[in-house]
């Protein structure tokens, strides 16, 4: 390197060199601090910026000023450059501080001609500012890329990957892909939407390089050693002329999200399936319940029907049993009568036995009748009753029985809880009968003794009487069947008719009978009847008129031959004159032709082959109203239906001769039933 010394002689510029003025003008055109130096190292020309930046003594001639001084503000950079250029090296630029203000300049030295060297110091601050800006943008971008959870790759226009972030760096083994081609090979992307492998040309990077913006392409790729699902975005980078200079590739790993979504979808599908199944099951269940309910209903109906049939069968069997029992001694007596016909005592004895047997049979029939006959009593055809008084009566009547029981086994204590008067209306005989049955049952239920409580009460519109015992009680089964006729747990000691009768009587009186019972603790049966004001009846009941037998002219209408014949004989035995016929027509004929000796009385059966006895009753009422009429029936007399009104009296079969005689004799006694 040529070392120029300030002591060297200043040679004047050769002729082809620009004069100082022209050189200075040239320098002024430059936007930098600039100066021409002679190869000797002396200053030749300098522009205004140069005078400000460099050390130039304006009072001394330029040629006396060496670059060593002039370029002091550039430190060693200026002299070094100049000497290198002077030595024939290629011109170069050096970045250097100018002075102490921190101004940076680009220092450049170039040979101008064979005599002059040009040195320029161009202010680099502006360019530096730009550089700082871009550096900052660079740093910001880098930070951004580091922060984003997506992988980011930036390529140049040739598809070379020039920048990646940390996420991207982790995605592939080392060495990582350096081109989009390699990236595609590593990834082996599968297009999820179209369900097929993605070709290289279709890859997001290639599409971006061809100028397309790719938004959210769902791909399955091979990354981090596993199959992952990514969302891929790509966008071309363009310069000011809109040429594509590279692409930005951004991939988001959504494997987890996809998995969650898939799981969610699967769960939804599963739930939907479950819901369908549950709905189906429910429908099936409902159908099942429906079917079962119908079956149950049907079976309930069946059971009900069965129970009704059982009850009817039981009723029939009971009646048969009792009737047979009643007929048995009659049959025996008839046989014996024939054998001992000559012995009046024997005949009378058999007659008594026959009568007793008939009484027993009739009692059964009557009790069954009371159960069957459940139609309510007609208001007015009954009496004002005091349940307390009736209960007291029943307790009196049953005292001997209770006393007998008490002495046989344990004592039975009686507790009376009787209200002063408990008014209702009805047939006192029936109520008495009902209470009698209840007391009887209570006593039966306490073989070891106990307490019998009789309570009467008025409750709202009801008058009640309750019979309670501390006896054996009833099981649920027994309680359910207790009201059935002929249902008994007492074997041959029970008829099974007591509670059936109570039930029928309660119904007839528009009331109820209820049982509450605890096995081993006792039973209470309560009778509730419509409440009514009780007024003590004025005067005593009429005393029965003693029968005075006056021979009468009597017409008997009875289709049953034996019945007709017996009736005729009974009446004839009392001295009456009797005509007996078997049909309504015959009866009408007799009545019509009897003007000579008019009938005093007609006794008629109800069920006749050619009509009802009641029709005859009405016929007599219309045509021969003076003839008295009595009705004899095997049916329970139906009280207060109006049908009995034409008849003076109604007698029930089996006919009791004494009763009949009383009615015939007591010409003016009012019509009554056998009760
Ligand atoms: P019976 O007394 O002839 O058996 P009932 O109709 O009066 O017929 O009674 C039917 C059945 O009800 C009785 O056999 C008995 O089992 C039951 N029962 C009735 N009353 C009572 C009672 N007070 N305590 C326990 N069981 C009773
Ligand atoms: Mg009984």
Summarize the SSE layout with pairings.
Elements lengths: L19 H9 L4 E6 L4 E4 L1 H6 L13 H4 L5 H11 L5 E7 L4 E9 L4 E8 L1 H23 L3 E6 L4 E4 L1 H5 L9 H8 L2 E2 L4 E2 L6 H6 L4 E10 L2 E13 L5 E10 L1 H85 L4 H29 L10 E4 H11 L1 H10 L3 E6 L5 E4 L1 H17 L5 E10 L2 E8 L6 H6 L16 H11 L3 E7 L3 E9 L22 E5 L3 H13 L3 E5 L2 H9 L8 E5 L1 E2 L2 E2 H11 L4 E6 L15 E4 L4 H9 L10
Parallel strand pairs: 14-16, 20-21, 20-22, 22-25, 25-26
Antiparallel strand pairs: 1-2, 1-5, 3-4, 4-5, 6-7, 6-12, 8-9, 8-10, 10-11, 11-12, 13-15, 16-17, 17-19, 18-19, 23-24
The site of magnesium ion has 5 residues, from helix 13.
Q: Characteristics of this structure?
A:
rod-shaped; 675 residues; binds magnesium ion; binds adenosine-5'-diphosphate; alpha+beta; disordered C terminus; seven-stranded antiparallel beta sheet; five-stranded antiparallel beta sheet
